Amino acid sequence: MSTLPSHSAVAAGDDQIAHEIAHDQGSLKRTLKLRHLVFIGLAYMAPLAVFDMFGIVADVTHGHVPLAYLVVMVAVLFTAFSYSRMVRFFPVAGSAYTYAKEAINAHLGFLVGWAATLDYLLLPMINAILSAIYMGAVFPEVPFWVWVLLTVGICTALNLVGVKLAAKMNVLLVSIQLVVAVVFVVLAVANIVNGANGASFTIRPFISSDVQAAAITAGAAILALSFLGFDAVSTLAEEAERPTKDIPRAIFIIIAVAGAFFVSVTYVMQTLFPDVSQLGDIVGASPEIARYIGGAAFQAIFVGGYMMAVLGCGITQQMSAARLLYAMGRDGALPRRLFGSVNPNTGVPVWNVLLVAAIALTAVFVDLDQAASMINFGAFIAFIFVNLSVIFMFFRFMKRHTTGTWLGYVLVPAVGVAINLGLWFSLDRISMIIGGIWLAIGLLYLIVKTRCFRANAPDLTGPMNVGMSE
């Protein structure tokens, strides 16, 4: 394991560290500014995805979706704090995989990366499924596979051109989504003011006599996926112009903007329809609400805006998955020749982009429930170990243990570990079984590759070889 840069140097914003990291197989191009990172993160979360989950979570939480969003937002903020700590020490691609491997143990780091890879690899597939479902509702005569192929094809083409063009596209796509969402909220508020469906502004969506902690936790566990964009941003540290400054800033900006958006939108929806069983289809509650508040014309605009979310989300999901594979390949956790190379002209890991596209095309054969059940497992494992990595950094590498460092490097991440463990254990049985199988496959691969752990795990290309001052 490599030694670490001084905390004081990192705190001073010395991004030169990141620029001096050399890689045998070439390096990614640093083209992303803070605004690019923020829009990539927001696009990854797909702001309009809040409408996908509303009906399901409203049913699970018995009409308290905004409260469930507040709970998961608190959990994410604790984890985001740990991400912002770790990215200052490791401004390289890889995210939770890199942090756990460097701060805790190389073999364990591989397993964390393996678990997180499941999420990254399957999210583009789920995105393609959702695209086909929504477009199939508008154009039922067009075969399901056509929409899957078009969605995957467009996202792949933009990623192959280069990350900066994809980022610029996301600025446009996120902007369109936000406009549609704002119009939705305005129409919903107008309906509430006019007393539609007997609605009036109350605090019931946040607190009422029938709130059940278990139900809110279960809803929060589902909604955690809404915030995965900040994690995706951390995988772009090698493509940010100022990673040690802009990645942490982007993380908190994304969570603040997204959290306010999610809570606001679901509040007006829940206020208008406190009981979603009034709607004909709980899963498809949002399009029904769109028609209720704005008629058929607005429903068409709403579906069109959702397709903008599909494209924005698909671009960034594929981008992040490809770069996580690149980090693992470059460091030897996966075959380096295949996964650890980039196109010298575009700076894009082409093979990885195409591999993720091929996996996404399996959306033709998999239904949404099967795909979605596998996502949360790896996400919470990644969050848990990012928090643990900060704690290990404190005890293994930091020389000065002050009250402030105990608070920032032990207490806060420990709370993050506890919260994420609670959410992880709230997952349904299918998610735990499928995730466990995936993790077992990774463990078997690691045992074979390291000859029952007798061989060293692949080395990470780490930060500069200087000691820590705190």
TrEMBL record:
Keywords for this protein: Membrane, Transmembrane, Transmembrane helix
Membrane topology: Multi-pass membrane protein
GO cellular component, one term: membrane
Residues that span the membrane, as ranges: 37-58, 64-83, 144-163, 170-193, 213-237, 249-269, 289-315, 346-366, 372-394, 406-424, 430-448
Location of the Amino acid permease/ SLC12A domain: 36-407
Keyword Transmembrane helix among UniProt keywords: yes
Gene3D superfamilies registered for this protein in UniProt: Amino acid/polyamine transporter I
A GO biological process held by the record: transmembrane transport
Record's subcellular location: Membrane
Top-level taxon in the UniProt lineage: Bacteria
Signal peptide region: none
Pfam families reported in the protein's UniProt record: AA_permease
Family annotation (InterPro entries): AA-permease/SLC12A_dom (IPR004841), APC_superfamily (IPR050367)
Protein's name according to its UniProt entry: APC family permease
Lineage: Bacteria, Bacillati, Actinomycetota, Actinomycetes, Micrococcales
